[in-house]
Amino acid sequence: MKTSDFNYDLPQEQIAQDPLEDRSASRLLVLDKETGAYEHTIFKNIVDYLNPGDCLVLNNTKVIPARLYGIKEGTGAQIEILLLKRREGDVWETLVKPGKKAKSGTRIQFGGGLLAGEVIDIAEEGNRLIRFSYEGIFEEILDRLGQMPLPPYITHELKDKNRYQTVYAKYDGSAAAPTAGLHFTPELLRRVEEMGVAIAEVTLHVGLGTFRPVKADDVTEHHMHAEFYQITEQAADLINRTKKNGGRVICVGTTSCRTIESAADEDGLIRPRSGWTDIFIYPGYRFKVLDGLITNFHLPESTLLMLVSALAGREHVLAAYDEAVNQGYRFFSFGDAMLIASVMPKIAGDGSLAAKLVSAEPDKTAAAHALFSALPQDWT
């Protein structure tokens, strides 16, 4: 299986640069994972495709302002840091740009000395381990100095940093948002619960494993970086009860999917646990718990596109992506969404949803400078 098998063409002007004013007003492409049939609607109509007794799984991680800009001591060179995960205490695994200027022993000042860091080791694939020193509370300093780690393909300034958070974000730790959840509003979540759909919250702190580019020609040779996850007893009980009663478990985002699939035993039973996962899901994977997925449109040749292809089949997914491109959908983090599940009866029904289909040309954003190829080459 080749990485190039997951490529597709996307006009740069369809890369969403700004979030919509109404989170739930984005477009939604509903894809039947068994037949490949699809339908166009808007996200707030997601309730039309959910059933009482289903369970939505949300990732309640919270994005930290993980991008820091500093000055290298001795030379004054500009250094950019992306915090990936806390190793222990004040030691973080980071991406450094440019990496060549950050050898072991390098010291970096941030905010005129409000925060200082020293490179103490070079980890896997060139990531730097940095020990930070400061006075006060690290999280408060980071909130003051750090910036939200928007992907490089987003070139517009984010006016409200909360728009890169889900409305249910709780626990600090992510270097990127679980973007499928950005479409939900508190009102929409209340409608979901009122119709008898359970909501289970899990945690996976999104790090390098989710968005690292696939550099190997052979998909099976790609290695995912580990990310921390946690499933509470309450969440495990909700998911297990849903499966036992014949309901569907529908994950909001690939990170929620990877969390429950990592925590499940071979019989599909979820147990409360926490730990690190480097699960890599691509076609041929047998899902143990997941029945459906709400997700955004992903980058060509990415692990996320491979995951959704494992669920619905590469041919069905790429055909749906071609349809989305042709219909002017907005792509990636601030873009439109998909629901992938067994929904053929609702798609092929009496046409009652026809009035809700989206026919208007969507707003288009200014062209991005270039398609995002995961990370710039000088990230090391």
Walkthrough of the structure:
There is one protein chain. The chain is 18% helix and 26% strand. 43% of the residues are buried. A hairpin with a 4-residue loop joins β8 and β9. The protein is built from eight helices and 17 strands. Strands 2-1-17-16-14-3-12-13-15 form a nine-stranded mixed beta sheet. A six-stranded antiparallel β-barrel has the order 5-6-7-10-9-8. A two-stranded parallel ribbon has the order 4-11. The model is unreliable at 349-380 (pLDDT under 50). The chain has 380 residues and is an alpha/beta fold. α6 packs across α7. The chain has helices at 138-145, 186-194, 208-211, 233-244, 254-263, 303-312, 314-326, 344-347, and strands at residues 27-32, 38-42, 55-59, 61-63, 67-72, 78-88, 91-97, 107-110, 115-122, 128-134, 171-174, 198-204, 227-231, 249-252, 273-277, 292-296, 337-341.
Note poorly predicted spans: 349-380
Integer-rounded radius of gyration: 21 Å
Mean pLDDT over the residues? 88
Q: What structural class should be given to the helix and strand makeup?
A: alpha/beta
Number of helices: 8
Strand order in the sheet with the most strands: 2-1-17-16-14-3-12-13-15
Q: Separation of termini?
A: 26 Å
What is the percentage of strand-forming residues? Answer: 25-35%
Show the helix and strand layout.
Blueprint: E1 27-32, E2 38-42, E3 55-59, E4 61-63, E5 67-72, E6 78-88, E7 91-97, E8 107-110, E9 115-122, E10 128-134, H1 138-145, E11 171-174, H2 186-194, E12 198-204, H3 208-211, E13 227-231, H4 233-244, E14 249-252, H5 254-263, E15 273-277, E16 292-296, H6 303-312, H7 314-326, E17 337-341, H8 344-347
Parallel strand pairs: 1-17, 3-12, 3-14, 4-11, 14-16
Antiparallel strand pairs: 1-2, 5-6, 5-8, 6-7, 7-10, 8-9, 9-10, 12-13, 13-15, 16-17
Helix pairs in contact: 6-7
